[in-house]
Amino acid sequence: MDNAKYQTGCMKKADMLAERETYGINVNQRSTRPVVWAALKDHIDRAVKSEVESMAMERGHLVAWTPAYHSDLQPIEMVWSDVKGKVGRQYTVTTSFEDVRVRLDAAFASLPSKTIYNCIGHTERKVAAMSLYLETLDEADDELGQGSSDDEDSIDMASEASSDDDE
């Protein structure tokens, strides 16, 4: 899925605080609206499944969410690019929307399954290369004795140790 956000809205702080109580989310009532929203968002991300995910799970499937803004990791985007290219090369100054629709239908109808297969293969190779790169970085960090930069506990402990040295 492409992670596109289709619904936007703005809840009032009072409504968010009511939801906080409903779901037992621990956040101070005096907290600012962004802090309350961050706590709710964290709960939503962990506990609430989208309609698409629920439907897929009912049928024994898993939805893979791809990173936003990385069309090279979404095979459908490469297929769409191929189709748009074929249709675009047929453009003339007299082309109408009806012509475009007919050409799109024809391009999809004549799309070889090999093209789709190759787009999926390209994405799989790219993901495998990225995975290997990340594993190599992790191994290099391990060899140097460095932990993950995301480990805030080690950062906090290091800053406490340095402040103890200053005293």
From TrEMBL:
**Biased composition annotated in UniProt, kind: Acidic residues:** 141-155
Q: Which GO terms describe its molecular function?
A: nucleic acid binding
Residue ranges for the region (Disordered) are: 141-167
Name the InterPro entries on file.
RNaseH_sf
Entry-linked PANTHER family: DUF4371 DOMAIN-CONTAINING PROTEIN (PTHR33939:SF1), PROTEIN CBG22215 (PTHR33939)
Q: What is this protein called?
A: Tc1-like transposase DDE domain-containing protein
Species = Aphanomyces astaci
Lineage runs: Eukaryota, Sar, Stramenopiles, Oomycota, Saprolegniomycetes
